[in-house]
Design a protein that fits this description.
2 copies of one chain form a homodimer. Chain A contains 14 helices and 17 strands. Chain A is of the alpha+beta class. In chain A, strand 16 (374-381) and strand 17 form a beta hairpin. The longest helix of chain A is centred in the last third of the chain and has 21 residues, at 322-342.
């Protein structure tokens, strides 16, 4: 790997000959910051190309001159993938001007969008065509599709519809040598060689820059409904999930586990949020979307009756209106805000095998007990084994009191996740935050193969250096 | 790339020191032949390792000595991926002894199996755990999971459940340097680095040898049903598919298009097969699997009524019993046998964007008219855009009369597929049959990146040389 250089004045001058003026933007602080303030870029040449060919021109020039390129989507990533704090003036390549919806085809059930399109705009375009684009994440109002795919975003509907990669039929990307991978396609069956789409999805801009994608559209559920049920314990939540899927099939759109701590935090910090079941130790939010002859309310009432008979649930309420369903979701979606108001010491985006969730939850407190006294709020997408595992100070203490403990807590939680064959990055990606975790926990065979692929496709190491794999 | 050598007596002798005697088998002709008789291997050292470590030992030795390794699953592949006709005595590495089901977990909804497990055994193990493994292909009684994944097999249920890759949660594989990729995992959300699982799936044994996989299990539909409907034309079939999915959601398990020629062939060669609608120009077989409160018969009758009102369908029959549903499927599944009895000149495993199916079907006859007079039987998984497009001699002539035409027909059909942005290999893979097609039709950016990845992971080019990419 050669030494990387900076996007100096000379380099920028040369680029000005090959790119329209609109591609050059004044650098602004927001391109050098990220939501949690853990990394800050020093400076950079901000470029906002308007076409795939312009992206290719930039990457080709960067490859020639060994100038690093940091791709920038909506800037909502939580792991520092979009901020190269250790680079001196890289190119910051924003996809914001590539924001065209190229094609919506309801017959094909596919939409082709450029990388800079905001996730919510894809959802809206799908709805306008009487279709559903099901990917739903908290940052959907600002996250851009290129970043959503590059980080393989998840969210609450993964149980039914899969992660971002499962919703992508084809991609167009600029590879590290500046060549263009023209893989936009709505094809459902296509076995013509290696699946580079899935290689670039989740690669966080280190193997190529996604410039456009063809995404799946799905039928919009005709009837929706939701229920909250108090469950005996986390194991009962799993049994309830399987019971629900056995009876209702793919109609189960989301299945969220909520621990008592989250409800207590809501009661303390956001008393306006309604808690329909009070504060049971463990409860679940179940969301259904059914076809024309489906009756979600009846299905949920039936599920509750069967689950109650089996002693899985102790209490429950089925939404009687769309408004009540929204209230349930408001509760669930307010938990992260309540967490912020309490102030976590440490938060973890982890997953474990679904069947291991009860053991993981029960072993968690002991794993960190030696470090100090803490409160744990564990909640999340139990249908995917994806838990948000957040550690808080005891009442009367603050997160600042535990600055020294953060690293030990993280190690203890990640070690426990690893012991359960789980993942230390479930849905947020690796970025720059978890490069060391990958080196600690990842299968060495996988890590070596990843490095070989990175070297093969990006021999100069210009694309997002330091993200996912350590730059060296 | 170094010159490859043969698995000579000396090489075998050295291997005998490191492997148990059970791993050595007498070569038999069946390992050197394939179903359509297009390729025949000359000879080879047949090895049947019993463990992943033994596979690694073999591949390491092969890499050291530059001996090519041809992985062998169930031998059912139709594109010559399992037969290296141009190699002198490679290792033929059969996974047949790695046939353990390592774990079935109904709570986790996952099954972990070794590569040599027969597909049908996976289906049966799932059923015994009251779960569904939905992948269904004609060769399921002999195809082994390693081959099913390496070719990313498809089948009739892709519309609902996806291709083989979509049903795989994790893989274990031996990489070309003999290292082991330990990626068995039931995790649904795991964003820790590049997705090597999807890179190896569909790579046809050229980037690694899959030794085991963790596969998704799904809820078993409680109520199933089927209907056959005569449609106005192929465009009406697409509208009917979307109507069905809008009303019934994911409950639509299969949606098969059947052309009149297929029904005529059945009437001529297999008169015992019942044709419930006679011989309409175009008809579809719709299969449903619904949850506990679903009523497939009512849903299909409702669909027919709405579709008839919209003038999409002209006739229809809803199965009144499981026996009648099986009759419908017997009809569909007998078409390939009827094709064999008629004797095709040329058959094509292709896909086009779903919305392009009507145009493709209408342009097909003109595309081959200049070559001669033919009969076309077009049928297949219209919900995936995957058509089996088979060309037959006119009555009174035989396939042998057209030996000279085969190549021209193939070129004409593939050119038309390419013009519609389709795929010349929808579900069977590339193997050795379509290496040239890839060079002709594949995006050059993709082909170059594939070659770079192959060189990076397999610098000596020992794994299945000549499959997917030309050996050179």
């Amino acid at each position: 790997m050669k030494d990387l250089t900076s996007a100096t004045g000379d380099f920028a001058e040369r680029l000005r000959r090959d790119l329209p003026a609109a591609a050059f933007r004044e650098m602004e602080p927001r391109y050098l910051e990220e939501p949690r303030g853990r990394w800050a870029g020093r400076d950079g040449l901000l470029l906002a190309p308007g076409t795939t060919e312009e992206v290719a021109t930039i990457v080709r020039a960067a490859a020639d001159a060994c100038v690093p390129v940091v791709p920038y989507g909506g800037g909502t990533g939580l792991v520092g993938g979009q901020i190269a704090a250790d680079l001196d003036a890289p190119i910051v390549l924003s996809l914001e001007r590539m924001n065209r919806i190229r094609k919506v085809d309801a017959t094909e059930n596919a939409i082709t969008v450029e990388a800079g399109v905001i996730l919510q705009s894809v959802q809206e375009a799908a709805e306008a065509a009487d279709r559903l684009f099901p990917l739903t994440i908290a940052a959907q109002g600002s996250a851009r599709i290129g970043g959503v795919l590059s980080t393989n975003a998840g969210g609450v509907n993964v149980l039914r519809y899969g992660n971002a990669r499962d919703l992508c039929l084809g991609i167009e990307a600029v590879l590290p040598d500046g060549s263009i991978l023209r893989g936009l396609s709505p094809l459902r069956k296509n076995n013509t060689g290696y699946d580079l789409r899935h290689l670039l999805i989740g690669a966080e801009g280190t193997l190529g820059i996604i410039t456009a994608a063809t995404l799946k559209l799905l039928p919009r559920p005709v009837h929706t409904g939701a229920a909250m049920m108090a469950v005996r314990d986390p194991a009962a939540a799993l049994d309830l999930l399987n019971l629900a899927r056995d009876r209702i099939g793919e109609g189960v759109s989301a299945f969220e586990l909520i621990g008592r701590m989250g409800l207590d935090f809501l009661a303390e910090t956001m008393p306006e949020v309604r808690l329909p079941l009070g504060t049971p130790d463990w409860s679940v939010l179940i969301d259904l979307g059914l076809g024309v002859s489906g009756d979600p309310q009846a299905a949920l009432e039936d599920l509750f009756a069967v689950a109650h008979e089996a002693a899985l649930v102790t209490d429950g309420v089925v939404a009687q209106s769309e408004g009540q369903r929204r209230d349930f979701w408001t509760l669930r979606e307010s938990i992260p805000e309540a967490n912020r108001r309490i102030g976590s010491v440490s938060s973890h985006d982890i997953s474990v095998p679904i069947a291991s969730i009860p053991a993981f939850i029960s072993e968690g407190p002991a794993a960190i007990a030696a470090i100090g006294e803490f409160r744990i709020n564990c909640f999340g997408h139990v249908g995917d084994g994806n838990l948000h595992y957040n550690v808080f100070p005891m009442p009367g203490r603050s997160r600042a009191d535990h600055d020294e403990d953060r690293k030990a807590i993280k190690t203890a939680v990640h070690d426990l996740v690893h012991a359960h064959h789980g993942s230390v990055s479930a849905e947020h990606g690796v970025g720059r935050l978890k490069v060391g975790d990958l080196e600690t926990y990842l299968d060495p065979g996988k890590l070596a193969a990843m490095r070989a692929i990175k070297r093969a496709l990006d021999p100069a190491g210009i694309l997002n250096p330091g993200a996912v794999l350590r730059a060296n």
